[in-house]
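Predict the holo structure. Ligand: PMT.
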Amino acid sequence: MLKDRKILLGVTGSIAAYKSVDLARRLMDEGASVSVVMTEAACRFITPYLFEAVTGNPVRTDLFADPYSHIELSKQSDLFIIAPATANTINKLSCGIADNLLTNLWLTYEGPALVAPAMNFRMYRSPSVKKHLKELKKNGVHFVGPGSGSLACGEEGPGRMEDIPVIVESCTYVLSEKDLAGMNILVTAGPTREPIDPVRFISNRSSGKMGYAIARSAVRRGAEVTLVSGPVNLVPPERVSLLSAETAAEMEAAVLKSLPKADCVIMAAAVADFTPREKSKVKHSKGSITALDLSQNNDILKKISKKKGDRLHIGFAAETGKDIKKAEAKLKEKKLDLIVLNDVQQEGAGFDVDTNIVTLIDSNNTITEYPLLSKDKVADIIFHKIRELKK
Ligand code: PMT
């Protein structure tokens, strides 16, 4: 999404200015070209030369160095991001004050804009900052953060510039086409854990990466997203409603709770098919059990297919081998609109990797095979297919 995009990065006078060097780097890693404009105060914290070395582009600081840079740079840019944005600059942006190159550029810029505030929490909660943040939001400016935690001054509270990966994701969000706007999508991700006793459980190798990539892509494309997640070590995407579930029964309850408002369900979770009949309240001692008595969990997709209506149901089939027949049988049994088959034994596919190799089979029996792709890309092809199915 950021490939070949021209990003204008405004840096203002906050201690967080040093973090923006990394931001510029990360944006460039995503394929963007970054031009930096700094206020005089920002140059007191960090030198323009550092940004110049990192971005390979000249850094502008002086309104009078070139008669037209306050117009030219803004015309050429696809996104204007100000990170960090101080209370002073935020208030000036909202009032239309143009007293340096950055604020002049803001006035001439007509594209999407993103602001990452950074300041002491007392400034952040001051009536004037609150008022001007509200005004900028009303005018369509996007915001990311601030985060909460220990501030440079040693105090605690909201005011830290948001973490760089979150800012990069927000840039992607702002620049993405909102072709799923109006849709409410329920995504499941990760494994479930079925307890044997307080310290042991039955689970599987799902990391949640596939489901989280789907949720991230749906948010970027403008959908309202509920993510029902099993226990994973991933940071949930911004803007999702997260429901955590440990066991298959909890996942089922979370899905049923969110179902009434969903018009599309995508089950990427690896739900345990069985659970120990007895869950001991104390730890089994060595040798005290030799076998587990298991009962079947409900099949969530099968259960919700009974009152499906117009809702789209997308399932995954995790198979050992590219077994199209098995995937087709699951598609029919669970009354799915689409099933995504992945052979979890193929290198680069299935569990706990950033890539997948999938075959899409829809209810009209159209079969489309894809090569090795990132899970983000797989999520995009699923949504492309969903848009086709909705026509
Ligand atoms: O999380 P990652 O590490 O990124 O790995 C991704 C993945 C391999 C987990 C994912 O790509 C995947 O294949 N998910 C589905 C795993 C699975 O449970 O497959 P299945 O063939 O057993 O189930 C078929 C479908 O029924 C799935 O959509 C599943 O969510 C659903 N199901 C299964 C069991 C159950 N009790 N209820 C269900 O709804």
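The two ends are 25 Å apart (CA to CA). The mean pLDDT is 95.
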